[in-house]
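Shipment paperwork, digital attachment
Item: protein structure file
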Amino acid sequence: MYLKQFFGDVSSPHPCVSCRGDETLDFNVRMAFQPIVDVATRSIWAYEALVRGEHGEGAADVIARVPADKLYRFDQTCRVLAIDTAARLGMATRLSINFAPNAVYEPATCIRLTLAAAERCGFDPRQLIFEVTESEKIRDVPHVVRIIKDYQGRGFLTAIDDFGAGYAGLNLLAEFQPDLVKLDMALIRGLDQDRVRRSITSGIVATCRSLGCEVLAEGVETAAEYRVLRDMGITRFQGFLFARPALEALPVIAPDTWTALDAA
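Attachment content:
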């Protein structure tokens, strides 16, 4: 399967027995990419890697096929595939990779597979961002905090994804301060017409700013949502307003998008 095909039969760089091959992951995955834009510079700051099925099925359908005892192997497969695909596409920006918070592994050991993949592909590991999602209930918060702090100590950027989706977001933020806090799309959907959502979002932005965390708004779909968030001081965005995810391709921002947003 994929990991064994990528690394071959050599004993190195496999860092531990859990990383050797992936014969029991009995389906293939692919990667889509969605840009994260910096509106202050009108540039693509990063791309987020999003898992897809062999025929383009969505992430939820793919993850539903992963048994609990194969979560670690799935997580490692997605990391390596994201780096491999990004390198093949000539990505020159940062690459944001989600990791499964409930996959059991030791970060100091298993990050070696990620670094080995980056070296083999010629992708600068300093361009990697690791996101932990707040929409999945984390079974062992101290373990996830150890992983994040290990990554931070190695110089990687870190992010809490889907912040405000309802599980451990505030607890995670209290335990560690990531470089990025990505607001969940459900929180910002229609906030231009919702005083409560605006108030909550404004409070999160102020809290994160005081902690030295940058807020990123994801799932932005309308110019009205963008305008309110921009007025709160947010400069990094992700969502259909800018570009949809593309399967094994790097979407660009249409020039008329910036013109329309200037008028927003």
